[in-house]
Amino acid sequence: MGKYFGTDGFRGEANVTLKSDHAFLIGRFLGWHYARNHENGQANIVIGKDTRLSSYMFESALAAGITSSGSNAYLMHVTTTPSVSYAVRTGDFDCGIMISASHNPYYDNGIKILNAEGRKIEANVEKMLEAYIDGIFGDIPRAQREKIGHIVDYAQGRNKYLGYLTSIPAHSFRGMKVGLDCANGASFAMAKGLFEILGAKTFVINATPTGVNINDHCGSTHPEELKKLVLEKSLDVGFAMDGDADRCIAIDEKGNEVNGDLIMYACGRYLMEKGELASDTIVTTVMSNLGLYKACEAAGMKTEQTQVGDKYVAENMNANGYSLGGEQSGHIIFSRYAATGDGLLTALMVMEAMLTRNAPLSYLTQPVKIYPQVLVNVRVKDKNKARENEKMKAAVAAVDEQLNGNGRILVRESGTEPLIRIMVEAETDELCRSLADSVAVVLKEEGLTADS
Less crowded by CB within 10 Å, the N or C end of the chain? Predict the structure, then answer.
């Protein structure tokens, strides 16, 4: 990770950590950098944003930076991250920018940059960009007169993306009742229309964004309201998006949460039976549950692990030609159809698995026996010092020894926040909580927590 860019772009509190000045400089650099590949000195960069109040401010700053460097900014307006990825890889664009802090609260925001293939930009470009932000890269000339770039309305990009999604399912969704939680985020104007075009009867919640209610007790991180909707309306399935709709959590017909691990299992079995699961392998992160690995092994599916972050899942998939991978959080990549995680696509693939096998979602996920898992987030002053603390390491080793193969502990840094995440899997919830807390208390005793 760099100084500003983590595993999911440059993220922080709007106008505190991530400022409009940063957005202008990012636009300036990208407009100049990609223009060098064109004889006319103009690059084409597409921008999308979620519904946060600050997203409009950052959109304007980015567009000003791009055009002041002589390149053109194409505005998709409020749209999803995967739609920007699709626009870049299928259109005449040099890179794409998504303004979103994903599942974070409204006062945070982020800038995600995608290369011409619709994937996260290369590390060397990030490094140069960070040097430019810090003023050590050198000056970039400003375009003048007729060389100043254009700002272009590109709302049609959303329609092209939706048209593409509707072409993917092999089945009509007619007769299916589907709940959709849009998290008051980027999918609010897209999800309902997509499922209705495919024939489903839809029940939509949290699709009235105000700029400050994105992810507010709703969406993929808070699916409680969707669970109630599924049960009250006797729906076949429910899908909850996050703020930029690059991830999806499902709710089965019984009201049970179906996280990314369970989705990967259900969709992996479906793809494997169709002969479309490359090397019969699913790519996961180290956060995936032990129950997923045991169920995959029993079903004849292989798994590979990466460190946490969809960026690393995508890199593994691209390097090895795998077709399915993702995170427990619901960030799932179907590489045959998309270059990044896509919540709406994930929902479509779950529907396809249900309709192909003519079975409810609860049946498709039944073979996975999930180990109890607890995740404790500890806000710290310095993530590096916390991670390297010897007493903390000793506490982790003690937990590992106590579990003795009947569970596991994983301690890692958050890629986007000043947090140490302590994850424990064990035979009971009580044991998980006790062991995770035993490590968290050491961080506090060592004076490493933000409130110590």
Answer: C
Q: How far apart are the first and last CA of the chain?
A: 26
List Cα–Cα distances, 123 to 13, 162, 274, 309, in angstroms: 23, 30, 36, 15
- Annotated catalytic residue within 55, 71, 83, 102: 102
Q: Give the SS3 label for residue 175.
A: coil
Please choose, from the candidates 347, 319, 321, 183, the residue with its C-alpha nearest in 3D space to the C-alpha of residue 260: 347
**Calpha distance 43→58 (Å, rounded):** 19
Helices (H), 274-342: 290-299, 310-320
Q: At what angle do helices 260-273 and 343-357 cross, to 10 degrees?
A: 50
The β-bridge partners of 258 are 250
Give the chain's largest Cα–Cα span: 70
SS3 245: coil
Q: Do 235 and 254 form a contact (C-beta atoms < 8 A)?
A: no
Q: 308-344, pLDDT tens digit by residue? A: 888 899 999 999 999 999 999 999 999 999 999 999 9
- In the residue annotation, 102 being an active-site residue is answered as yes
Q: Measure Cα distances from 164 to 86, 169, 373 in Å.
A: 9, 10, 37
E strand intervals along 221-322? 237-241, 248-251, 257-258, 281-285, 302-306
pLDDT for 340? 94
Per-residue burial over 20-44, b if 16 or more Cβ lie within 10 Å, else e, is: bebbbbbbbbbbbbbbeeeeebbbb
DSSP codes of every residue in 392-431: HHHHHHHHHHHHTTSSEEEEEE-SSSSEEEEEEE-SSHHH
* Sheet strand arrangement including 237-241: 201-205, 177-181, 237-241, 248-251, 257-258
Extract the residue ranges of the chain whose pLDDT is less than 70: 1, 452
Q: How far apart are CA 145 and CA 227, in angstroms?
A: 57
